[in-house]
Amino acid sequence: MAQLTMIQAITDALRLELERDPSVLVFGEDVGVNGGVFRATEGLQKQFGEERVFDTPLAESAIAGLAVGLAVQGFRPVAEIQFFGFVFECFDAIASQAARMRYRSGGRYQAPIVFRSPFGGGVKTPELHADSLEGLFLQTPGVKVVIPSNPYDAKGLLISAIRDNDPVIFLEHMKLYRSFRQEVPEEAYTIPIGKASVVREGTDVTVIAYGAMVHTALKAAEEVEKARGAKVEVIDLRTINPLDEETIIRSVEKTGRAVVVQEAQKQAGVAAEVIARINEKALLSLEAPVVRVTAPDTVYPFAAIEDAWLPDPARVVEGINKVLDF
Amino acid sequence: MSMATKERPEFDTVQILAPDGTVVNPDLMPDLSDDQLRELMRRMVFTRIWDQRAISLNRQGRLGFYAPVAGQEASMIGSEFALNKDDFILPSYRDIPQMVWHGLPLYQAFLYSRGHIHGGQIPEDVHVLMPQIIIAAQCTQTVGVAMAFKLRGEKRVAICYFGDGATSQGDFYEGMNFAGVYRVPAIFFCQNNRYAISVPLHKQTATPTLAQKAVAAGIRGVRVDGMDVLAVYRVTKEAAERARNGEGATLIEALTYRYGPHTMAGDDPTRYRTNEEFSEWEQKDPLIRFRRFLEAKGLWSEEDENRVIEEAKQAVADAIKKADEWMPKQKVTDLIDAMYETLPPHLEEQKAEFAAREGR
What's the pTM value of the predicted model, to 2 decimals? Predict the structure, then answer.
């Protein structure tokens, strides 16, 4: 097995699916000759030709609309939105068009599209590049939203996303692209969409996170265990729409305490939804109110204060202590 | 000094029949058999009657959302008639006639109007997408459909229909631009009926024609008399042939007029249009014009007209009856089932809740 970064694992998944299924097409801004601004599509145009891997004009709405038209005709487009802050430009094509295709046509047409996009803070991008807008798609019935936290998951989840017959938004945290390597099998494998993973077993408190925050949560868990011996369980959601309620509830019933961590702003986000599910299904198991560790409810800041704005291990530790000491 | 833009001669309006039915451009006369000419007339008369019946059914509360089409028959029917059966139509909410003449059963159009899911279950051999509500979204989707044809080496064309208002949206331009760059077999068919609900064309754009917007995208632009069914047929046929031959996309601007309101949902055109203007356009009526042309050739008579009127009335009555009787009726659990290929657990749970209510 090779040691791959997340970006290499993503390229690997794209290559394998392009090889396996001639209906898979990869396109977006700069994805062809340049191999993508992060090199996620490096070498793919050379290998598969300009008909299957191609550059588009710089227009997100048309990129997404093009994907819808191709999907209706039986292709499986993998469209790249260069940065997720640009997703508003194609919100109509995703939420009003792709997400509604199956229903509007009573199952006659489907939209097996993957919208891939880099996102996430801590890498000092310009404005409107890093924003965590995934919550908007948690409120969009008809799409799935996948956010891997490591190379192994990224490959297996992306292959699942490409084979899925519904539109999947696949969000790649920029900070994770090259931050570490992991053993990734060479062959194609899938990880089911909608299944969370328990990345650290524990008995005293459950920390629920996704994307880069999984690593922040793991650091905080180590610190808490070192400081006070509490056993922290950490869940990586991997998919935020649909949520793996079963894994969340099972863990909270075991630990009786929960902290939900997200990079996005606090109000009406993924964490709020997770807490609502816990309240509906496991309220009586709780020993303390569930705490949210999130960014504040402001617009995404300029780079200079990004580090202070984003949740860090210290804030997660605070959150864990709060529920342990309630 | 004024810098008034003069209309560009290359976007002069293509016309074959004058409003009195005489041929003004014999060189452009399309190669259609007598039967085909009669069929064009049959479809326009049928559509006019169906439109009248639909408006009446809507007023009786027996139909749902409906956007009247009278006045636009030549644009709608002439263009669809120029397509092959396996060409693909991406319509907007007013373009139900093209869908039906392309093969969608009329009762399904009525079910769509009522918001029943079966209305959108297009039969396998009918190559249309459901009508678009977002006014230019189909322009970008058309490029995807057309690119699929090109990738598969199929000699098929994708055509989208939209109104003059849609040309103000980014997706209109983005779609044409993509079509130009990828040189896909697409037709952008704009029915310029002068009003986007109530806003007149001169408040929609400062350009003298919409056809010239094709120049910015590097595709061909054509302007046609949209009340002249032969001219519409001619320019669409040509655009389709060019597309099939790999010569790329065309924007067609058809100058037409809707006699009725924007939709039956409370729009009152007397608030924004004058009677004089209405009468002026009525003089250009596509049915009168084509009927005069056919009558002069001995191809159409009052009996023909009456036969089609009766045929249309009967077809509408049959279709509405079929829609009324269509089972199963819509349920919330059907809606839940249609969200994903397989239901995620949270929807399983919500489906169970609604199933229990529906079972009561």
Answer: 0.97
